[in-house]
Amino acid sequence: MNPRITLLSDPPAGWETNMAKDWALLEALKKGTGGPVVRLYSWNQTCITVGFGLSVEKVLAKGFGWPVARRPTGGGLVVHEPKGEVTLAAASWRPRGKSLNDLYRMVHEPIFWALRELGYPVLMITGCVAEPTKNVLPVCFDDAPCLYDGVLAGKKVLGGGLRVAGQYFLYQGTIKIPLLTQRTLFAKLKECPLWDSGFLQEEPAVALFH
Length: 210
Prior knowledge:
Layout: E1 6-9, H1 15-31, E2 37-41, E3 47-50, H2 56-61, E4 68-70, E5 78-80, E6 86-93, H3 100-117, E7 123-124, E8 150-152, E9 155-165, E10 168-175, H4 182-191, H5 195-198
Helix pairs in contact: 3-4
C-alpha cells in the first residue's frame, strides 16, 4: 500500500464517535491538515444510520428501538450491528473529471480485490438491477443492489454513499459478510496494489500536508 495513504483500524465505538471521526477525515482534507485516509471500524451497539437526504424523525417514527444518526454521506437506511459487518470510510481528493459513479467504483475496487483474495467471490454490479421504490424508506441491504455494489450468493453485501466537497470527497460504506473480520480485511487491504490507480491518481493544486 502506498505510504501516502493512511489505513486505520479503529476499535468499536458508538454512532456519535464513528460519525464524528468520519466527518473529521473530510474536514482535515479541506483544511489541508490531512491526506488520503481509509478507516475501518465497528460498532459497540446496534444502531441505525441514514443518508443526509433522509429524515431521522421518520426513521424514529418507525419504532425500531435503536439509536438513529444521520451520516455525512448519502444513501438509505443501514442497520449496524456489533457482529457480522465491517464498516469503513475513505476520504481523499476528487480526481479531475471523475463522476460520483467513478468515485464509488474507485473506492470499491480495492475492497473487491481484498474480499476475493480472502476467499469471498463478491461480484461487482455493473448496472442497476431495479429502479428505487418511491415513497418507501430505502433500506440499503434489503433493496436491490445498484451500480458498483457488491453481491455474494445473490445477496447485497457491500454498499456505501458519498459526499463531495469541492475537490475532496468522503465515502462511507458497509460490508455485511458474517465471517469476515476487521483484522483480516485490514491486513489484506494493506497488500492491495490498486490504491495508486485511484486515490493517488491526481493531487489537488494545494498542498495537503504542512
